[in-house]
Amino acid sequence: MTPDETVVLARYVRALCPGQKFDEYTPDAWHDVLADFALTDARAAAAAVARKQPFVSPAEIIAEIRKQRDERAADFQGPGLSAEVPDADPDDVQAYLSALRGLRTRAADGLEMKRRPVAELVAGIGRKVSPEVAEVKRPGPLGADCPKCKAAVGRPCRTPGGSERAPHAARSGDTDPAAEQAEIERRKAASTRHLARLEVDEEAAS
To answer: Biased-composition ranges for Basic and acidic residues (predicted)?
Structure first.
């Protein structure tokens, strides 16, 4: 607020509060206190204070300005409100917080929040992945689909019963025919033992 604007404010408050005493030094004193605030905010605050009491002080104007700014800043996002999306990458924390603080300041200043078109907001969704990025795989056996149990990239291998198990050798490209044959024989033997137990249980039940 400039000194001339402070004179305007003092005259405005005098009109709001006819019983309040002013002299030629009042604008100078008020400017020392209110110089950091905008005239429009100070006028609105003075009017709000004058609705409640017959006299208005600079301290009360400042308190009302801060109250109104806090209310505007608190309501700049939410259901039914005209909120802007911060124009920054959320993964860049510092830039995103800076953009968010800028939005809150604009909202507190009473500036209109402009909605960004939906097409602009979703422009980055479903973008085609470049070949360079597509070739990057997660290190280790989980970086590829498992040809044995069909586990997807990043997911653990599983037994036929659904329990997690160590990654299959085929998943990392390492195959051991002897080990695979031994595993097959182990499973066959386990199945044979299980069937034998079932037959014994059935005979005992009969």
So the answer is: 165-174
